[in-house]
Fold these 4 entries.
Entry 1:
Amino acid sequence: MNSLRLLFYSIVSGVLLAFSWPEIGLVPLIFIAWIPLFFVEDYMLHSRTRYGALKFYGYAYLAFLIWNVLSTYWVKNASFEGALMAFFANSAIMAGVFSIAHGLRKRMPSVRSWIYFPILWLAFEHIHHNWELSWPWLTLGNSLAGMHPLAQWYEYTGTLGGSLWILLVNLFIYRAIRLRMTNPEKPVLSNFRLPLLVLIVPSILSLIQYYTYIEKSDGIAKVAIIQPNVDPYLKFNGNSFDEQMKTILQLSRSVVDSTTDWLIGPETALVGSMDEKHIAEYPRMQTVAQFVSLYPKLNLLIGAETHHFYLPGDEVPITARKTNDPDVYYDSYNTALLLKDGKYEFYHKSKLVPGVEQMPFPWLFKHIEAFAIDLGGTTGTLGRQDERTVFVGKNANQKVAPSICYESVYGDFMQNYIRSGANFIAIITNDGWWGETPGYRQHLAYAKLRAIESRRDVIRSANTGVSAVINQRGDIIDSRPYWVPSAIKADIHLNNSLTIYSITGDFIGLSSMILGAWLLLYGWIVIPIKQRRIKKAPQESTV
């Protein structure tokens, strides 16, 4: 196999991975997308020509760069520099994981060494959900958001269960092809029996779940959702706060009545940062509070920009910034605000977008915070909270998980809300940064997976679309189109029961991290020690 063919196979894998992604191509392609790259890896592993680690890394990097660029190209609409950083950095990390698996196969050759890669990849996906350079958009299991009837078993495994399934199907098909190539006289079915079973059985079981699932209901909540449709690039400086407030109130009046339990508004709907200690004193908040007071059952959940001051003697977190007074610091927040009975509660966004809302590793890079990507509003490293806040409504049986934008991509993170008692999910977001691209539609699709994993109804309020209501099977039962000011009224089911995934969390990712750490320890430490001892043994015996 010459270099051109290796290059071609790498390109094919990158293209297949990209065009298997929701809202871009055909999702079933994900089950064969890795196969060309496996041919590259296997050839370079067994070839008589010695291929250096850097050359293998280059082929892998090309495939992953194509995947990243073609499937998330829309990030450039928000920030070209940020997109380049995401494309190149994420591709580099992915290629590094694949190269480590390749290196392990060289160090620990075995007929079962193919299993190293899925273990390390799942460990990587788990880490990529939890560290400060987190970018889990391309988690393999997310691809099934485009075919959610096949992802019903995520209530047991979470999204990484889908990643494992996809990798195993690809590996088994690849191995079947290799066996067919080495023994063409053997019946075709005997080679492909296992990959077909691994592909078909979970699909059938998931479809049975999907068509037989009955919505769980521990009560009904009446919700109203608004989609103000304010251009996000004008929202923070071009449109007046008064005009935006007028739009919010007009839409709210169109859907709220005396029976409404919840009014949900999008991320940063209340623009202009407000001091949380004195929030009731702001004229726009007084206008909002007056509107809410007209409806006896109403709880308002809406996005806002807020801040908190730390005075001399207060414990100051690393995210805090200095004011003009050198002894006074403050934190800025992307906030979900609950207003009920004239009182305010706050949840501060915890999963922050790297490079926009968070400078990764602030203890190291805090001094270059000024280079954070500006998307309007508050930029730089925002304050955040470590524990999830579940908002309890006036009816104490209604408990909502307030997820802000990017947080809804994190399945295991969202289960912390569910374990804390949330019986439905509200996603507030502002997706207009990316324009008319697959970006906002992918974000909507991922919300289906959160509904399935927790078996919770999901209500989604997006400033610039798509606002939607999603049931416990992951079906979108009502929605509003992109770039249209609108509102939704809906009755949703409350569910207090926990799924297996809600109880266990990301056990697949954690298990893979443990196994992956053992593989790395054994391959790069134990084996070299054994080899050195073997080399020394003959010398010692002659003394």
Entry 2:
Amino acid sequence: MRRVHTAAVFLLLKAVPVSSATLSGQIVDSRTGEPIAKVEVIVPGASKRTLTDQNGVFNLSVPAGDLQLYVTTVGYGLVKKVVHVSDGPSPPVRIVLEQDTAVRRDSITVEAGPFDTLNSNPSSEKSLSKSEIQALAMVLVGDPLRATQALPGVTSDNDFRSEFSVRGAAYERVAVYVDGILTDGFVHAANLAAGGLTSSEKLSLSIINSDNVSDITLLPGAFPSNYGERTAGVLDLSTRDGNLVKPMARLATGLLSTSATVDGPFAGHKGSWLLSGRTSYADYLQRFIERISGAGRSADGQSESELNFSDAQIKGNYHFSPRQQAGLSAIYGLFAAGQTLAPGQSDLERLKGLHSHNLLVNAFWRYTPGSHLFLETKVFGLREDSKDTNRNDALLDRTKHTEEGFRADLGYAAGSQKIDAGVYTSFTRAKKLAIGYPVAGPPNSLEDFDRTAAQQSYYLQDTWRKARTALTVGGRVAHSDLTAQTIVMPRVAFTLAVYENWTLRLGAGTYAQFPDFDQLFGFFGNRALRAEHSTHFNGSVERRLGTRTRILAEVYDREDRNQPFGFYEPLLVDDSPTALGRPYRNVLRGHARGGEISVQRRSANGLTGWVSYSYLRTQYLDAPDQLRFVSDFDQRNTITAFASYRLRPTVDLSTQWRYGSGTPFPGFFDRKGGSLFLGAERNTVRLPYYSRLDLRMNKAFLFPKWKLTVSAEVLNVLNRKNLILVSTDPVRVYSSGRLAANLDSSFGVLPSVAIAVAF
């Protein structure tokens, strides 16, 4: 009887109709609010799934009650959301998607247009979104600085370097800010070998993983007053915060490195935390070095070389109230290179080992009492240690650089007016010791200094906006103990929206950069050096084609003066090899002039990317020596192109192409056939043109509680044999009396695969 009763109850329950309902909603991009098509919406418990239409809208017939939704598409993060569905039609839900590895929020944080500027009325600004950084940073290394190399006005013809030049100026003249803190480039770097000696050429890699960078902004000319300390441009990187909704994790591994990130909210959702780490595999990178350095197994069949890098980041933000926040961030990088030399390697200046450590600690407090006032203070510390050793593990070079500082920024807006002001103070100590090992004679000290200095800068700018116009007037004052100079730098910017879709921008300003410790106290140092100066003039016209496409044309003139120049490179004088060995002097003046034109489309749907062409001419004069030459980075013609397209909810394709006419061989060279010889003129011989085409595909696999993304990339698809110059470090030339310079090819076709798991 009990079995009959149970069966009857089961049949009665089965006969009761399950109430159904209609779940509808819209998926939008968190930054712009743009509806996103081809997004997959899954209800695992009900085995239901659908795709959003061109308006980002979806409709599903589901059981009534509480349901778990999984929402994602390739290039965007995975959202898990519980919704309550009532009988019959339910109110539509709005779900916000963040680009892959970005901060997760449940609301739209910035309703901004695709080309809105991040700074206040800049005369020239180029930016990369989170998805663009991910597509351009290379699967192999995930380097955000390499993503920057695809921007208009940027020159990079060395596939082994993260550094780049901006409008003919060296990377050392570009201010690299990480979360508002000025760094000294912040890259892992290793010298390559040239004729058995350490070289001026380097292999380098950013210390920051691209997964942890939220956006990148390049200001290549006439940049505003809240940036300073460099004379050519600004690169501003912002690292992302932890997720504010729920704990998340991401693990990625590829042929060269593995990285992991875990992040989430604090209790009560009063802020967020983030932990991240990345480490490399040496064997793959080893083959890079051997191919271009002539060292290692490829050179003698016995020696072995290896490089390893690791870096980590912790970050926490705590919200005491909606008006007050505080946080702490720390980024640490470790880089090690080693070479096991074969028996018989007798050169005492041959590099055997390199170790370097980098650390950036940044604590901040932010106070926003209302919509009109903003105040932020930062206390920071930087440390860089590096050491090179020779075949006997004896010291070649040792460098220690520490810096502590304070930054405060104030913003006040009232009506059509906004005032920005701030102070940046730093205290720096630099120590360096370099030992030379001549062919004949005992070791000697090449460089040996231990110096400290303080530097302060203050800025103020006022921006008026009315109808279609904006005018910014401001300036910056900087003082350095190194040169005992105080320098005033006025700046101005003007924007006019001529018609609804036309915008004119003009900007001008003066800039200064104090000499570094090497230029003052190093082997070619001169303690009488003064600051270098530049004056920028920038103008652009922008034409919008709808809301997602624009044409941007820009012209510029940068006038440089008092640049430090050391006339120490070997050259021919009356057909005889000569090394003058003159120290740095403020003798160089010249200009960089050119223009850029680009067509760009940005959208959460369809094709996104740009095509740009840049033209540049430089000319410099060392008047005391009557020496004229073009910049070391004078690339007359540059073309960059990037395109990305989401084919399906789980597949997207992207490609980039960079072309540049040949840059000079820095130094006094003549080229006869395929060989280099000393010459009497500087920078007259050029490298062949540079060209590289890369392809990338991302394929996402969606599971009930996690997401797997496979990324496949092929670098240098056309197998272009791009050449780089590897020459002896100038200091080592004077130490050993030997100069080596040769051309080596970069990598050929280079495939790479990586997988990433998010849950």
Entry 3:
Amino acid sequence: MMVMTTKEDDCMGNERVARHSVPANMVHLLGMIWKHYKFVFVLILLQMLAGGVMPLFGLYLPVLAVDLILAERGMGQTLWILGGFAGAYALLQLVHGLAESAKYPFQNTLRNVYLRLLFFKALDCDFRLMETAVGQTWYERVKQTKTGGDNAPSSQMLNATAGLISGLISFGFLIGILVLLNPWVLVVLVVLSVAGNFVDRIPLKFEESQWDKSGDIDKKFNYLSNAMSDVGAGKDMRVYGLSGVFDRLCDKLMGMKYALGVRIANRYFAAGTLQGLIGVVRDGLAYAYCLWQVTQGHIGIAQFVLFMGAIASFSGWVNGLMGHVLTLRRENARMNDVRGFLETTNETEPDAPLDINLLQNGALTVVFDNVTFRYTADTPAVLDGVSFTIHAGEKAALVGINGAGKTTIVKLLCGLYKAEAGEILLNGFNINGFRRQDLFTLFSAVFQDTCILPMTVAENIAFSLPGEWDEERVVASLKTAGLYEDIKAHPKGINAHMSKTFYEDGLELSGGQQQKLVLARALYKDAPILILDEPTAALDPIAESAVYEGFHGVTQGKTALFISHRLASTRFCDRILLLDSGKIAENDSHEALMAAGGEYARMFDIQSHYYKEEIKEAPHVR
């Protein structure tokens, strides 16, 4: 079966939602059940079949009783026939109930499968998306759809699918019965039921239009929840008395959420009232016709009981079917939101990707050729025609004021962003020609934000499972980063677990120690390009100088790019690139730039006044 989808961009060009039809998502969900819980798929089939036939027994039981009484079969025979019929009915109810109960915990657990997929997609999807407010709101929105238990769209759609198919089986028999009464009665019942369905769609459309607003409120509330439970922020909370501020913010968000819920509920209430009036007219006309038929002698008592039961059941069946359809429509939009995030949050990979082995031999030359980049279409360019070359094996420092675009250059080089114009070349090959995962293997990067996971020290450095990492390389990396002595002091050494949140004897590192740990991680990876983006911001100037001097040896044969606000720490680099107003303003060695007396020299002189001791000359390595 071919599933047709389209992709649509929102007004900011960041959110791309896949549009799958209701049948396509029904097939998708049943396929997910078959993939993860095959026996549950069988249970769903049993539930649908039993649920489709079971109501007919309830409809025909009183008819059978009237027929037996009018035929004067006798008490014994009547009880045996009715008892057998009722036994079959009870057996169907048992099968239906057991199937529904047995599948419930597994069907409900399917939402956890999606939560896992969403979590890993958030880690893997285009970094540019997750840095935007639109992307974060989108992620929070789809995440919330899967944390609602039975209200999760996967659970709702599976239940509605089973109910709809069961209802259609029953409804087919019901239509046949009403046609025997009068086809026009069936037409009136169907037309008024369809009118009621259109009424139901009005509040649904409004609810869908409010999803972005609801997701934005959830995003802000989750931020507050995380901030209030952050142990690291506990000191500020207490010293500055922030509990009252958070309380007011929470009250405001909860009030917004409540007001939005009331607006949605009012529309459903109005629609329900109107549909109730339509139902009274619909059923009243059908009952009146059926009474007229029996009083005129056109139908018998047994037929009257059957037709009255069919008319009474029609209302319930139509409401049930329309309810399932309404649920499928509503949850289909939410399911599309989830699938859209899973399917369309990555830029397309090249059709014929270049072999990454083309760049695996030795150091690499990095070229930015007239690169322009802006974060959104309505904001100024962060980089405006930036051009520079870092030759193979060369160490370059990128400096400039806050907001100059230094970290943006790093993100572009690593393939986390794509340039709006211009090219980024590695040994002459455009980086857009490589698969993203292949490109990541070329970089050992240390960013400003540290990422420490609740694993052992060695696993945090090697990012490998026990037995798969090289102990000597782990130790050597820690020594070079200046952290080995601190780690060795712990009874378990490099096998000590990080974080006391998970382990009572866990190792807690200071901010400076954490940065040293991620420096060791970059050294362990040993990629041909080393990037240090403010890696020593939490270190004092002396410790920072020692770390950079320790990198002299390990950067031999590698291309290295350093970013630091402390200009004295980058003097060992071969060249300094000064970024100003989105362009490379100065590009030369430290000595040449100081002699030129430009902006770099002015910045260096200003910073040098803050040090009491003369800055020691670091060896200049080429």
Entry 4:
Amino acid sequence: MIEILESRIAPASVFVFTDVDGDHVTISSSKGDLNTAGVVTLGNATQAAVGFRHQLMSLQLGAAFSGASITITAKPSLDLGGTQLQGDGFVNVGEINARAMNQTPIDLKSVTIHGDLGQIIVGSGTGTAPALGSLDVQSMGIFGLTTGATSANSYFMNGVKSITVAQDVDAVQLRAEADTGVAHPDAKIGSVFVGGNLIGGAATGTGEIVADGIGSVKIMQSVIGGSATDTGRIAASNKGTIGSVYIGGSLIGGSAQATGAVYASTTLGSVTVKQSVVGGSAITSGGIDGESIGSVAIGGDLRGTTFSSANSVDHTAFIRAQKDLKSVTIVGSIISGSESGGGTLTFSGAVQAGLTLGTVKVLGNIEGTATDKVVISGQGFPTGATGDTIPTTHTQDPAITSVSIGGTATYMQVEAGYDLTGMATDGDSQIGSVTIAGDLIASDIIAGVKSGNADPTIFGGATDSLIARPAAVTTDGVYATIASIVVGGQIEGAGVSGDSFGIEAQWIKSFKTGGLKLPLMAGAGNDGFALGITTNRDVHVRELGGK
């Protein structure tokens, strides 16, 4: 258990009472007078603070406390016989309100509580100074509204420098936001440390840490989505960034949209999940999402769940960058999951980049299904430009740098030239290397090719064709290329009549399977053959010409 240190600032005011289980509680403030009427609200208001047991319902802090350091400590007390300790050394606080309707809104320097806090509302809402320097508590929200909080939402107007919670953050929202009328707010959270879990609840936004920007987040156990939208979530909104995220347990989606998620509206730095990322049963549940994302490391699986729904559900157990995704390393497997209630499930167990996908390394297997395939995709540069550069060679439109699978890949689709919705957009997109240590079963590897089937997710047919080149490219000097494919085991289809799978591009430069190098002809658009040990031979290797 992490123990919060007591404040070393000499208090200007002290208030003492006995809490509900017998602890002697001391509230100290470096400014103001805690004994002023209306500042401290106890559950048994008509009884003396010492000698009777009380719940600390609220602290209402006005102008006299501006910039104060508030510390609330608890120590077990001896019973009347002087032989047995009473209390647990922790005090539970309902709310701290420095923006009460009858008070002047103020900023605070620090708040330290040896116990649970239900809610804090703080900040003058003027200028760009943070509402609070530091918040250090044992836990948040464990007792819900029973200790005196008026809601599950905590607000830091214009931000907070650091939040430290020794144990769980349970079904409360920690939100840094700007006050109305502030022209240039700095509604950011500098850093967050949670020694336990971040747990979503049954009300929207509970179990959520959200700000216009967050420096770093460490959750030592799991982030768990709830049954309402935006629960169990770490989010930077309003074009905000997140520096880095560390989750010591799992990232687990819930039963509502945007649950069990890490999201940044612009840049998301490195993300480490020591156990698994697990999808939920709703859209964007159990995922890592941002405009541009750095390195993602998952110590377990990227795992979709099995559920029943009549709805269309997309993006569960997913990693998605609207633009660039630097790298993904998954120690376990990618497992798509399934939906059995008549609805549809897409992009469950997906790794996608709206522009460039860097290195993807999966030490385990890829385990998709015939109806719910694992998608690994990068779009490339469909407008024909990276900055001011129009691609002119077959190395200037990279969609996927490399994909490496340590085991067997089943029902996997590696796609270059496809956007985040699965639409074919870029006929010049390229893949670097694809390496599968085991077998490649019922899977597709596609660069710049679109399906001619009525179902656009089925490849390998004779009517497949190259996607149109980007509009800015006027000559076909850029080839949709796969630089190399290495499969350690067998390549096989599904073994079902009528099935078709494709390994297709404009130019496949190198191809090895089972230790043998396939005799590809030099250049683009001139190879085509079928693979597979069954009579169907339904894996079609093809280079396509013309655009």
